[in-house]
């Protein structure tokens, strides 16, 4: 295990009706709130009205609405402008990863001279300060509610890139599973695929002796496998929604990734797909993950894949580890099929025309060619894309 510095300071208020604490929570930070949200699901679910009912009288609310899935730089800039104009004290992000990520970029952008794209693209530009963020999560997926990461799309340059800062980790996150009852089927499976992918990305890593991280990841993977079919069949099943919600936060708050070296494999490949084609992040991951697994299965990795099959899918370990490893990869693929995920790129509107360009960008924008679990060249990425057609 490598040295690490674990920092997960988000005050997490989990469970039914935790929103009652919202006035007290926001009061700590001030009276002018930027209410950030997406395309309107919070209005349809009644959450928007509830927020006004709870804080509308005592607070000045400024709205940043219409935050897109795969949030755009233009929207971040709009949010920064609103915060400066109205001297906003705190951002209340209500929604999923897209709304929370956009809010993080706005929070940091307020104190940055110049375009927020600077601190997203240039590691030398440091974030010095950020507005406090409070979130109300409405979909179990990214873990953004409990981490300092954010991913923003620049439509002009066709780039979707992430940044990370401790200063934008949400101060408080309200996690009420009932708010995810209205998440549609497609987004529910995308969210689960994203959680699962975060765990896979951390699990398949070359660092030895990380039983704690791996044991937690295995438990969370089993949780996602167990509860996703229930959430899909019975969207208002509290137990399923609650377990998926908590799994989402724990999968990417450092618990399963700290103490390991290297970089993720499928996320950099997927971010190019969403940058070029604006597809749903979790769906792109589900399509790529089994193809990536097949591609990197070799004598060095076979033991790990067999262990994954044994611990996550309860497979008996065969003397021929390849048999167990291949069965585990097939079960991963079949799981996504069973959930209903469209498992090829053409089904989400991607043909072969830009695969080469996206493969080059995936390598250019990340360290997958040197630091991934199995290093991936442009040719490797292209092969994984092609196998996903
Ligand atoms: O915009 P609204 O109307 O709210 O609808 C959203 C959106 O259309 C809808 N939705 C969310 N909650 C709902 C609901 N519909 C009905 N009822 C509800 N309760 O679902 C759609 C997707 O929302 P979005 O926020 O885009 O989903 P998600 O949480 O999956 O976020 C995806 C974004 O996060 C990034 C992804 O790349 C993508 O841009 N990621 C962020 C990470 C992080 N910050 O740590 C890590 C991830 O790996 C990921 O890259
Ligand atoms: Zn993800």
CATH architecture of the largest domain: Up-down Bundle
Number of DSSP strands?
A: 8
Task: Calculate the terminal CA-CA distance, rounded to whole Å.
Answer: 38 Å
Silhouette: globular
- Report the β-strand fraction as a percent range: 5-15%
How would you classify the quaternary structure?
Answer: single chain
| Tally of helical segments | 16
Radius of gyration from CA coordinates:
20 Å
Mean pLDDT: 98
User: CATH H level of the largest domain: which superfamily?
Assistant: Dehydroquinate synthase-like - alpha domain
What is the number of domains? 2
Tell me the series of helices and strands, N- to C-terminal. Answer: EHEHHEHEHHEEEEHHHHHHHHHH
CATH topology of the largest domain: Dehydroquinate synthase-like, alpha domain
Strand order of the largest sheet: 1-8-5-4-2-3
Which regions are unreliable across 5 or more consecutive residues at pLDDT < 50? none
CATH class of the largest domain: Mainly Alpha
Q: How would you characterize the largest beta sheet?
A: 6 strands, parallel
Bound ligands, each once: 5,6-dihydroxy-NADP, zinc ion
What structural class is derived from the secondary structure elements?
alpha/beta
Q: Helicity, in percent?
A: 40-55%
Keywords: Oxidoreductase
Domain Fe-containing alcohol dehydrogenase-like C-terminal: 188-388
Protein name: Butanol dehydrogenase
GO molecular function, one term: metal ion binding
Textual characterization of the structure:
With 389 residues, the protein is an alpha/beta fold. The protein has two domains: 11-179, Rossmann fold (3-Layer(aba) Sandwich), CATH 3.40.50.1970; 184-388, Up-down Bundle (Dehydroquinate synthase-like, alpha domain), CATH 1.20.1090. 49% of the residues lie in helices and 11% in strands. It contains 16 helices and eight strands. It has helices spanning 22-27, 41-44, 47-55, 73-86, 97-109, 117-121, 185-203, 211-233, 238-251, 266-277, 281-296, 302-313, 321-339, 355-364, 368-371, 378-387; strands at residues 11-14, 32-37, 60-64, 90-95, 133-137, 149-154, 159-164, 172-175. A six-stranded parallel β-sheet has the order 1-8-5-4-2-3. It has a two-stranded antiparallel sheet with strand order 6-7. A hairpin with a 4-residue loop joins strand 6 (149-154) and strand 7. It is globular, with a radius of gyration of 20 Å. The chain binds 5,6-dihydroxy-NADP and zinc ion. The site of zinc ion has 6 residues, from helix 7. One of its GO terms (cellular component) is cytosol. It comes from Vagococcus teuberi. This is Butanol dehydrogenase. Keywords: Oxidoreductase.
């Amino acid at each position: 295990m490598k040295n690490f510095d674990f920092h997960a300071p988000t005050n997490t208020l989990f469970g039914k009706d935790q929103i009652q604490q919202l006035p007290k929570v926001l009061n700590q930070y001030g009276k002018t709130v930027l209410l950030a949200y997406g395309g309107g699901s919070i209005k349809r679910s009644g959450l928007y009205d509830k927020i006004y009912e709870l804080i509308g009288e005592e607070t000045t609310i400024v709205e940043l609405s219409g935050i897109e899935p795969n949030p755009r730089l233009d929207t971040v800039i709009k949010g920064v402008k609103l915060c400066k104009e109205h001297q906003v004290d705190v951002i209340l992000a209500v929604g999923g990863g897209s709304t929370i990520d956009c809010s993080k970029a706005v929070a940091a952008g307020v104190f940055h001279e110049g375009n927020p794209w600077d601190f997203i693209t240039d590691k030398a530009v440091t974030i010095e300060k950020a507005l406090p963020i409070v979130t109300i999560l409405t979909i179990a997926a990214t873990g953004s509610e409990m981490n300092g990461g954010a991913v923003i799309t620049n439509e002009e340059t066709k780039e979707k890139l992430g940044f990370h800062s401790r200063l934008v980790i949400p101060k408080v996150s309200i996690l009420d599973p009932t708010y995810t009852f209205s998440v549609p089927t497609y987004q529910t499976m995308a969210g689960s695929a994203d959680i699962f992918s975060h765990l896979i990305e951390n699990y398949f890593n070359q660092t030895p002796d990380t039983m704690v991280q791996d044991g937690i990841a295995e438990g969370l993977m089993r949780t996602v496998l167990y509860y996703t079919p229930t959430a899909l069949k019975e969207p208002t099943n509290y137990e399923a929604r609650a377990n998926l919600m908590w799994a989402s936060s724990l999968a990417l708050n450092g618990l399963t990734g700290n103490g390991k070296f290297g970089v993720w494999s499928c996320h950099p490949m997927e971010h190019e797909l969403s940058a070029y084609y604006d597809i749903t992040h979790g769906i792109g991951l589900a399509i790529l993950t089994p193809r990536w697994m097949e591609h990197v299965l070799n004598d060095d990795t076979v033991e790990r894949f067999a262990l994954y099959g044994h611990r996550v899918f309860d497979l008996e370990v065969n003397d021929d580890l390849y048999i167990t490893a291949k069965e585990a990869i097939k079960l991963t693929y079949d799981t996504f099929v069973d959930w209903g995920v469209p498992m090829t790129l053409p089904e989400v509107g991607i043909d072969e025309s830009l695969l080469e360009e996206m493969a080059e960008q995936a390598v250019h924008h990340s360290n997958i060619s040197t630091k991934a679990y199995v290093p991936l060249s442009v040719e490797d990425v292209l092969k994984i894309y092609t196998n996903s057609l």
